[in-house]
Amino acid sequence: MDLALASRTARQLMDRYGLEHWSFAFDDALRRAGLCDHARSRISLSAPLTRLYGQAEVRETILHEIAHALAGPRHGHDATWRATAVRIGSSGRRCVDPQAPAIDGPWAGTCPAGHTSTRFRRPARPMSCSRCSRRFSVTHLIAWTYHGRVVPMGARYDTELREITAVARRAAAPTLVVETLDLGLLDLEPEAVPTAAGAPGVA
Ligand SMILES: [Zn+2]
Ligand SMILES: [Zn+2]
């Protein structure tokens, strides 16, 4: 969707639902479509994702963020927020449509079964495929490329990978905390989800 048109749509909807004193802006986020900044009374949309989205997805994102503004920062995605969202015409879903276009990161991962995912940052730790196993599993390790090329993953990654494979050889598969990549979130940064110390993740 054209950014100027998206901006006008946001302004109209914000005014309609009582946010005349809130400002609107675009940001550069790649993994969330919108953001409601209560401290600054500002709603922003990701410029790169807005360009990819159709009118319906942009409208849904704007209404999602307006509902956050109206419900207040303490409500997150709870029932109060959802009721507000539905009242103003949003779906009340937490995520954008999984079919909505997304921006791929330069890091591409493939598991032994051929499932793929991408990331924007270099994976700091070995990960296994969440579609093959919900828990970290050494038999479903993901192999990474950067812009299509196999590159060094770094000393820490290599050390951890050696330790994991050594443990796997010695014993049954270790039980480790799962890190999931929730690519559909509208306004949470998946990269910020903490993992337990020492635990590889799942992508
Ligand atoms: Zn897999
Ligand atoms: Zn939200």
Automatic annotation (TrEMBL):
Pfam name, any one: SprT-like
Any single biological process term in GO: response to stress
Domain SprT-like span(s) in chain numbering: 1-139
InterPro entries registered for this protein in UniProt: SprT-like_domain
Protein name listed in UniProt: SprT-like domain-containing protein
